[in-house]
Structures are given as structure tokens and as C-alpha cells.
């Protein structure tokens, strides 16, 4: 999520300066085609539009062997009116970075924004209209929100399973590891009403946590009280610039990555990928750390994409090209209304379905809804809209894993 409460209370003092800030560069191996892609944005939208003169920075140059997955083929003209099928070019994956590596980053990542941060005009409109919570009718369905906690499934090293604790917090079992995504077990986060559904998985029910991945530093994705529950030697994978936050809290195994970079732990590969979002945790740190999603690849090639928090845009197709054969995409569907304010940073349900298709994902599991009231749409609307969009797209109903909070699913053994 954009921390809507946070942005409305802190961005006003810094957004005007932020929109004109130029970033230090850390560009590496991105292709010219990626830098040429543009994304249509809504006038006055708050957090992200496409800078046409900026080149998105990426991670280190890719040098290692490409994925063993076979990418989808694309028709290419050949001869007189004939088509031949050739695989699209797939950039090779970067060599894994060393775990716990200490790195130097640019002072700001403003050059990674794909839409401008809110200016004074947008802030004035927000102050004038101000509707960022559903009305009484929109809240009436809280008792109907899907909540069905159940024990975590038994798995072995060859099994991939996901369990939704709520919001963007998942327990992913992959390659014999237990991985938490954006763990938030707190009842309340800064500036936001208490959660409207309980945590779906009790902390005491978790197996030993082998790793944590963080998408960005907004309070509903980076929760200090929850992270304090972890042993300080727990491996943590974070966006560029965020390791310092963890090291100040005595975490000793922190690996920070740039977009398109990866690292390996226990045979599982953790790749950090772009997202259409931003970062901010205080009045003075706008875009000082990076934001993104994660692709987790098991030793046998099964893949899960955790999108973190993101709007819709060109990155999804590029992620799908670089990481073909995504078996499951965990995609946000909530916190999208009003669109003029949130379209650049949060997918609506229809956009999430499009994103799953762009990724080439075999399945999609919705998230980032039914937990905290962060915007104005009725609380049950994201679910009804994503189901309708999935059906309209002609996708198999069994491939939409619309789990209840606390629910789990196991990837079929033939997923790869």
C-alpha cells in the first residue's frame, strides 16, 4: 500500500521539493527497450507517472545462465505471408550477489519513479475532497470478509505452498524454506485504524522462519513490532538502501538488492524486481530506499512472484519475460479508490488480472485487501471485482486462488 495516512500527513511538507529532485544514478544492465516504455497516468495522480527523460536504473549486469524454463514463443514474419515461431529474447539472470554484502547506494531513488509524486495541486484537491474511507454502507460487509484460519499444510522440500496471513503477509514454503513476505502481525499500524480481520496465522503456529522478504518501507509492509519477534540472525532480503534500518535493529544477515538482482539461500533464488510504487517512512526520507517485488525460484524451477505493493504498468511484462514460467503471482487488488489519487501506486482488481496475464502467470492469488481500511472502496468490492474480471478474461476459475485470510494452497506437483 501507499501508506495513504502517512502520505497525507507527511507528504505535504516535502512533495513539492520531491517532484523536482534529481537522483544519483546507479544504472547498469537494463536494455534500451525497457527505458523506452512509457505508462499513461492520470493528471494529478499522487505517487507515480512516467518520467520521459529519465532512464530507469537497474541492477548489476546480467552474466549468468538464463532460466531453464522455456519461454512462450512469439510469431515473427518469415517469408511471404508465413509465420515461424521463435522464442523472444530473455535477458540472462544476474549472478547471485553474496549474502549479507555491504553496499553503497545513491542518496535517492527518485529516478526510479514511473509517475510524479503528488504536488501542491494534488494535495489541495485531496484536502478538498478527502474521501479515503468507505462510508457506512461500504463498511457494512466487514462481517462477510473471508476469514478461515487453518493449520499450515505439511510440506517437503519439493513442495511449494502459500498461506495468507492477511494484507501482504504470506507464509511461502518453497525449496524446503519457510519465507515470510512483508510480515505484519500487529493489530494496528501507524496512522491507520485497527485491522478489520484478525491475523490468519498465529505467530505461535509458524515453523522456524528461514527468510524474510520486504517489498518497501511503508508501515503496512515494514512493521517493526512484528520484526522484533524474529531471531536477529534471520536472513532478510530487502530493497536497496534498507539494510541500514535492519542493522540498526541488530539484524545480522541482511541482503539488499537492486532491481533485477538476485541472491540464493538454501538452493532457493530470491530476485528483486521492479514495481510501480515509491517509498517513504518519515518527513525527510522520500524515495531514499528502493521498492519492488520478489520472484522466488525453487531448485526444481517452480516460481512464485510476490508483487508487494504496486500500480499497473510496463514492469509486469518485463518481469514475465525475464522470469518465464511463473507458477503463482501474489498480486494486490485493494486500496485503489479514489483512482485519481491511487491509480499510479495501487492496482485495481481488473488491472491485477491484466498484470497476471502480462506476467504469464499460471495462477493468481489476490492480496492487499480485507485487512486494513486504507481507501474508499467498499471492503468486499475487491473480491467481487477480481472474480468478475478473471471470468471475463476467460481464465480457468481454479487458477484464481482467492483465499480467505488464514487460507492455504499447495502448488500441484506438475506446476513446473
Keywords:
416 residues, single chain, 15 strands, globular, seven-stranded mixed β-sheet, alpha/beta
What is the average per-residue confidence, as pLDDT, rounded to a whole number?
84
Along the chain, the helix and strand elements come as HHHEEHHEEEEHEHEEEEEHEHHEHE
* Major sheet size, sense and barrel closure: 7 strands, mixed
Can you list the strand order of the major beta sheet? 8-7-6-5-4-3-15
Gross geometry:
globular
- How widely separated are the two ends? 31 Å
Supply the number of helical segments: 11
Beta strands, count: 15
Q: Residue ranges: pLDDT <50 for 5 or more in a row?
A: 1-84
Helix content: 10-25%
Q: What gyration radius follows from the Cα positions, in whole Å?
A: 20 Å
Global structural class: alpha/beta
Q: What percentage of the residues does DSSP assign to strands (E)?
A: 15-25%
Describe the structure.
This protein is α/β, with parallel strands linked by helices. It contains eleven helices and 15 strands. The protein has helices spanning 4-10, 15-18, 32-36, 120-129, 136-139, 224-227, 243-248, 315-322, 339-342, 349-359, 381-392, and strands at residues 74-78, 82-86, 161-166, 169-174, 177-181, 211-213, 236-239, 254-257, 261-265, 268-273, 293-297, 303-306, 328-332, 364-367, 408-410. Strands 8-7-6-5-4-3-15 form a seven-stranded mixed sheet. Strand 1 (74-78) and strand 2 form a beta hairpin. Helix 8 runs parallel beside helix 10 and helix 10 (349-359) packs across helix 11 (381-392). The protein is globular. The chain starts with a helix and ends in a 6-residue tail after the last strand. Mean pLDDT is 84; it is low at 1-84.
Amino acid at each position: 500500500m501507499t501508506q495513504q495516512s502517512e502520505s497525507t500527513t507527511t507528504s505535504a511538507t516535502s512533495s513539492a521539493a520531491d517532484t523536482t529532485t534529481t537522483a544519483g544514478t546507479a544504472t547498469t544492465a537494463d536494455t534500451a527497450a525497457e527505458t523506452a516504455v512509457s505508462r499513461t497516468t492520470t493528471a494529478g495522480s499522487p505517487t507515480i507517472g512516467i518520467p520521459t527523460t529519465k532512464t530507469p536504473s537497474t541492477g548489476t549486469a546480467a552474466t549468468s545462465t538464463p532460466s531453464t524454463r522455456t519461454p512462450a514463443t512469439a510469431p515473427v514474419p518469415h517469408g511471404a505471408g508465413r509465420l515461424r515461431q521463435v522464442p523472444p529474447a530473455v535477458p540472462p539472470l544476474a549472478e547471485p550477489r553474496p549474502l549479507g554484502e555491504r553496499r553503497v547506494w545513491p542518496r535517492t531513488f527518485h529516478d526510479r519513479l514511473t509517475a510524479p509524486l503528488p504536488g501542491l495541486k494534488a494535495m489541495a484537491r485531496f484536502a478538498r475532497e478527502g474521501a479515503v474511507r468507505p462510508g457506512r454502507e461500504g463498511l457494512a460487509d466487514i462481517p462477510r470478509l473471508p476469514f478461515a484460519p487453518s493449520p499450515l499444510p505439511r510440506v517437503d522440500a519439493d513442495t511449494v505452498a502459500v498461506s495468507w496471513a492477511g494484507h501482504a503477509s504470506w507464509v511461502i514454503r518453497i525449496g524446503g524454506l519457510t519465507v515470510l513476505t512483508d510480515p505484519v502481525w500487529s493489530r494496528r499500524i501507524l496512522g491507520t485504524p485497527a485491522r478489520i480481520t484478525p491475523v490468519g496465522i498465529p505467530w505461535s503456529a509458524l515453523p522456524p522462519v528461514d527468510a524474510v522478504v520486504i517489498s518497501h518501507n511503508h508501515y503496512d509492509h515494514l512493521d517493526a513490532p512484528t520484526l522484533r519477534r524474529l531471531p536477529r540472525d534471520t536472513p532478510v532480503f530487502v530493497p536497496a538502501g534498507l539494510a541500514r534500518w535492519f542493522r540498526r535493529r541488530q539484524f545480522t544477515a541482511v541482503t539488499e538488492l537492486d532491481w533485477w538482482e538476485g541472491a540464493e539461500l538454501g538452493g532457493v533464488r530470491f530476485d528483486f524486481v521492479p514495481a510501480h510504487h515509491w517509498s517513504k517512512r518519515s518527513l525527510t526520507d522520500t524515495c531514499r530506499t528502493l521498492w519492488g517485488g520478489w520472484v522466488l525460484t525453487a531448485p526444481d524451477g517452480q516460481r512464485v512472484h510476490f508483487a508487494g505493493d504496486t500500480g499497473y504498468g510496463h514492469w509486469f511484462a518485463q518481469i514475465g519475460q525475464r522470469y518465464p514460467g511463473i507458477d503463482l503471482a501474489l498480486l494486490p487488488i485493494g486500496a485503489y479508490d479514489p483512482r485519481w489519487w491511487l491509480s499510479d501506486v495501487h492496482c485495481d482488481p481488473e488491472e491485477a488480472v491484466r498484470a497476471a496475464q502480462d506476467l504469464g502467470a499460471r495462477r493468481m492469488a489476490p492480496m492487499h485487501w480485507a485487512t486494513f481500511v486504507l481507501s474508499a472502496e467498499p471492503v468486499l468490492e475487491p473480491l467481487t471485482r477480481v472474480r468478475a474480471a478473471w471470468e471475463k478474461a476467460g481464465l480457468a476459475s481454479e487458477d484464481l486462488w482467492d483465499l480467505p485470510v488464514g487460507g492455504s494452497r499447495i502448488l500441484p506437483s506438475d506446476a513446473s
